[in-house]
Design a protein that fits this description.
Blueprint (H helix, E strand, L loop, with lengths): L26 H11 L3 H8 L9
């Protein structure tokens, strides 16, 4: 496709379709995620900031 920044796709819809929402992430979940990824807590909080259920200190 030209230009290379162009986007195309097939979009399907159905009246009975349902969508899900990603819930807020608790501190305990972030600590576990950071441990499994080998990240610091601050690093995980930075990447997950829009979804945090708490205010990082």
């Amino acid at each position: 496709m030209l230009p290379t920044a162009a986007v195309s796709g097939w979009y399907f819809a159905h009246p009975d379709s349902q969508y899900f929402v990603v819930g807020r992430v608790t501190r305990e979940q972030v600590e576990d995620y950071a441990r499994r990824k080998g990240w610091t807590l601050a690093e995980a909080e930075r990447w997950l900031a829009p979804n945090l259920d708490y205010d990082p200190e």
